[in-house]
Amino acid sequence: IWGNVTKQLRDEMSTVAFDTWIKPIKPVEVAGDSITLCVPGGLQKGSLNKSMIMTKYRSLIESSIKNVTGKSLDLDVCFETNSGVQADDPIKQESALNPKYTFDNFIVGNNNNLAQAASLAVAETPAHKYNPLFIYGGSGLGKTHLIQAIGNFYLTNNPGKRVLYTTSEKFTYELVNAIREKTNQDFRNKHRTVDLLLMDDVQFLATKELAQEEFFHTFNALYEAGKQIVLTSDRLPSETPHLADRLKTRFQMGLLADIQPPDYETRLAILKSKIEDEYFTFDEEIVEYVANNITSNVRDLEGALKRILAYAGIERTNTISMELAQKALKEILSTLPQRNITISVIIDEVEKYYRLPKGSLITKKRSNDIAYPRHIAMYISRVILDESYASIGDAFKRDHSTVMNAVKKIKKMVTEDTELQEIINELVTNIKKD
Ligand code: ADP
Ligand code: MG
């Protein structure tokens, strides 16, 4: 792939730029829907290269990749360090783990703390407390990240031990191949002799009887040998149609840990940590705008961020303005069902929530039972509509500085008060609903 991509890039760039920035890049791997590239040159020079590539050439590289493969691949850039790329280590290679998934870069929130804590416990002391560990939750919520973090953590702390990361699809595919090529014994050895088996997306096993049968025996062999098994799925075993009862029973023997969609606070924290990695500085306001508007899952949050960075790349800037962020997210947001939100919609919803008579927020009343909801409505108008203080003022019949102070006050309270965060989340959800 990379050869063709560079050929394309060479046509589109000046020779000097190409030789300086693109030529030294080494492709490391294509895994799933992401491609990892490595820039040489030690940490300092490497980070300069990386930020250049991310700001100026990212969108160009991504579109060339798309031209060549017909797919959009996520672009990851890492540094080449002196210790060499990890792919050299045979044990790590055998594990099929992607080193980018770690506990260190996994943000813990109310939505995933059980799954994270259980994963860490398993990685520290396998086959001790929870065996198997069964992590379940919707798409893009961090299951693959967590299950791989377990493997990476364990391998780092127990060099020489054997870990295998696989998916139920890969398991099935390899099983079918093994039967055809009469290499069943190799297949069994591969899966039954490890210290830690990580099986991602086990829900896909359910439709394949042969694979279920084989996995049942794999599971038993490992379990009886005192080895740890970790499974992920998009749903509970009991809610997986066609999953054999004996597998259901086994999957439920250990701990079932769910991952829920991230709340506002967690979305904010995730965005901030991803931004840190990207060598960009964002205004708090923009991070809040994204966290308020992209609520579905972490993959979409990352996608939103990538779009913003791609736009920044096109416009050759690394200061991201609200205008740029809105432009970048316009398409994503327009595909979400949304009503036309105006300040008056916000006022209506806040009044409804606080059971206030219609129109009370725009009266002159200053008692706290009205002033507080009014300030919240002003704050929401500012963060989700990005209206100017003056036009929010017009809608509330207040002046610009009153609005500014109210927004500032609520913003500060939100960072300290989780109950208020939840109220605002709920309000924003109501506001977006038709
Ligand atoms: P799933 O396997 O549940 O569909 P993934 O593990 O692939 O989801 O997560 C999607 C993306 O979101 C990945 O890039 C992952 O690194 C990131 N991600 C998910 N949860 C978190 C989190 N809590 N902190 C940081 N990144 C996360
Ligand atoms: Mg996954």
UniProtKB/TrEMBL annotation:
CDD domains: AAA, Bac_DnaA_C. Residues 129-257 form the AAA+ ATPase domain. Residues 342-410 form the Chromosomal replication initiator DnaA C-terminal domain. One of its GO terms (molecular function) is ATP binding. Keywords: ATP-binding, Cytoplasm, DNA replication, DNA-binding, Lipid-binding, Nucleotide-binding. The keyword Cytoplasm applies. ATP binds at residues 140, 142-144. GO terms for biological process: DNA replication initiation; regulation of DNA replication. Residues 1-90 are annotated as: Domain I, interacts with DnaA modulators. One of its GO terms (cellular component) is plasma membrane. Residues 96-312 are annotated as: Domain III, AAA+ region. Residues 313-434 are annotated as: Domain IV, binds dsDNA. Its main location: cytoplasm. It is found in: Cytoplasm. Pfam families: Bac_DnaA, Bac_DnaA_C, DnaA_N. Plays an essential role in the initiation and regulation of chromosomal replication. ATP-DnaA binds to the origin of replication (oriC) to initiate formation of the DNA replication initiation complex once per cell cycle. Binds the DnaA box (a 9 base pair repeat at the origin) and separates the double-stranded (ds)DNA. Forms a right-handed helical filament on oriC DNA; dsDNA binds to the exterior of the filament while single-stranded (ss)DNA is stabiized in the filament's interior. Belongs to the DnaA family. Oligomerizes as a right-handed, spiral filament on DNA at oriC. Domain I is involved in oligomerization and binding regulators, domain II is flexibile and of varying length in different bacteria, domain III forms the AAA+ region, while domain IV binds dsDNA. This is Chromosomal replication initiator protein DnaA. The gene is dnaA.
